Amino acid sequence: GIQVEQSPPDLILQEGANSTLRCNFSDSVNNLQWFHQNPWGQLINLFYIPSGTKQNGRLSATTVATERYSLLYISSSQTTDSGVYFCAVERRYNFNKFYFGSGTKLNVKP
Amino acid sequence: DVKVTQSSRYLVKRTGEKVFLECVQDMDHENMFWYRQDPGLGLRLIYFSYDVKMKEKGDIPEGYSVSREKKERFSLILESASTNQTSMYLCASSLPTGGTDTQYFGPGTRLTVL
For residues B76 and B58, is the Cβ–Cβ distance under 8 A? Predict the structure, then answer.
């Protein structure tokens, strides 16, 4: 398989703070996605980003495929950002199999 | 909006029981997936299906089987439930992966095997 490592495993922020979450992967990928799992367990896709940079409101993501890592930036955090953030990759030439990291658990305090 | 539904949010079963978890999606997606989520391990793929009656093993298929008789429905079967299958089970669907589409997840089923 492919190894997907996320850091940090846990993060506590005060509301309004910024943060960077990291995802390292061990092989070339077709597809990289960031997901947010809310406290009720629902997973929502945030970004599809196998390379380059994308922004969506207060969130942005950058993937440097040649160096095998991706970063998720959260700016001006809100309590609703709390939950677990997962990175998932689809290994090149191994379609349909997604490998998830173990996640970063974020707690944003008011 | 894509909707993926799962038959139960919470389920309690006894060791040795046969357990069926059902997943239905309403977006005519070809691909469907079953994952289990355990603390510290992220999501691990059990099985996926890329068409009706087609299936492929994921990384942890032991102790599980699947059925896809209709495009919209993908069932996960625990033939004889064991306590180490206590977990959160998540279903997902997507278009055929050309690398451009996301997976859409159901709300999850938290299964406890006593």
Answer: no
